[in-house]
From TrEMBL:
Gene3D superfamilies: Aldolase class I. CDD domains: NPD_like. Signal peptide: none annotated. PANTHER family: 2-NITROPROPANE DIOXYGENASE (PTHR32332). Keywords: Dioxygenase, Flavoprotein, FMN, Oxidoreductase. The keyword Flavoprotein applies. InterPro entries: Aldolase_TIM, NMO. Coiled coil: none annotated. This is 2-nitropropane dioxygenase. One of its GO terms (molecular function) is dioxygenase activity. It holds the Pfam family NMO.
Length: 344
């Protein structure tokens, strides 16, 4: 097993060196979930925690960064949504508090904001759902990429990680690329490391950990769920676009379908303008994630989860989860080496 662990360490060494962590596993930034407690637990367990800024105001983000730094002396990052109206100020807050890595998500960052992050002494990480964007971001100065497949929880793109990895990993050179989406075991991570990735981002498995502040009902919903229960939000009419979000099917998602049907009908009958109908559809999920995560209303709230939710069988400490992921990775490498020797 010693040789297998050494192989694993070689495979993700570039990822560990880039993050400053012992293992190249990032915690996915999940709104309401990826806060001081979970982020510090992931970093303290040897991984790399990431604060989900979401819609936070600069003062609120500052408070969260300071609180996280009080809980861990290890590196962690902050995930910023590029469409946030106060993005510049949020970057300033991160730089003022010596946050080592800033993840620019939820859209394509500008060259100026990437330069600001780098000039301020932080590392800039971006998301690439396609090869063309990956190459564009590299030219713009991004220092690392996360490629996230549609199996992930929350807001997702249309392409699976299996396909994205084949499309992107052989063609992006010179910067670290981390994989994400549907990952729940260490042996799966190894398969992508061997394709050229330097590490992985996992969210769902950590959302149901002991250190996660998510409501007990939220975690129980994860334990009950199978992969097929984590579905993307359905768009009924192309005239009224719906941003695809993956979460557990519940009463809320069923009511969302009914609402869309009602709005389409009212628009067609001239009772509502197109703008008002679209607004009603968009407002349906306002506050829904908080209702599920914090209040525990898992029937009407948005229970964002990736398809790896079916592998979450118990609520465990983050350190145990991390240890299991590493053990699974080492075991699959050892088994492969053993098979190769037998064939030889």
């Amino acid at each position: 097993m010693t040789e297998a662990r050494e192989t694993l360490d070689r495979l993700w060494k570039p990822g560990c060196e880039f993050l400053g962590s012992e293992v190249a596993i990032l915690g996915g930034a999940m709104s309401w979930v990826s806060e001081r407690n979970l982020v510090s637990a992931i970093s303290n367990a040897g991984g790399f925690g990431v604060i989900a800024c979401g819609a936070m105001e600069p003062e609120r983000l500052e408070e969260e960064i300071v609180a996280t730094q009080a809980l861990t002396k290890r590196p962690f990052g902050v995930n910023l949504i590029t469409m946030h109206p106060k993005l510049d100020q949020l970057v300033d807050v991160c730089l003022a508090h010596n946050v080592s890595h800033i993840v620019l998500a939820g859209g394509v960052p500008t060259s100026a904001i990437i330069k600001k992050v780098r000039d301020g002494g932080a590392r800039a990480i971006g998301f690439a759902p396609a090869l063309a964007l990956a190459k564009r971001l590299v030219k713009m100065g991004i220092e690392a990429l996360v490629i996230e497949g549609s199996e992930a929880g929350g807001h997702v793109g249309p392409v699976s990680l299996t396909v994205l990895a084949q499309e992107i990993l052989p063609h992006v050179k010179g910067i670290p690329v981390f994989v994400a989406g549907g990952l729940g075991r260490g042996d799966a991570v190894v398969s992508y490391l061997e394709q050229g990735a330097v590490g992985a981002q996992l969210g769902t498995v950590f959302a149901a950990s002991q250190e996660s502040i998510a409501h007990e009902n939220f975690k129980k919903a994860f334990l009950r769920a199978n992969a097929r229960d984590a579905v993307t939000s359905v768009q009924l009419d192309e005239r009224f676009p719906v941003i695809p979000v993956r979460g557990l099917s519940n009463e809320g998602s069923r009511r969302f379908l009914k609402l869309q049907a009602e709005m389409v009908q009212k628009y067609q009958e001239g009772e509502l303008s197109k703008e008002d109908a679209q607004l009603s559809i968009e407002h349906f999920w306002a506050g829904a994630l908080r209702r599920a995560v914090i209040d525990g209303d898992v029937e009407n709230g948005s229970v964002m989860a990736g398809q790896s939710v079916g592998m979450v069988k118990e609520v465990r400490p983050v350190a145990d989860i991390m240890e299991t992921l590493v053990q699974q990775a080492v075991e699959v490498i050892a088994k492969r080496d053993h098979r190769v020797k037998d064939l030889g």
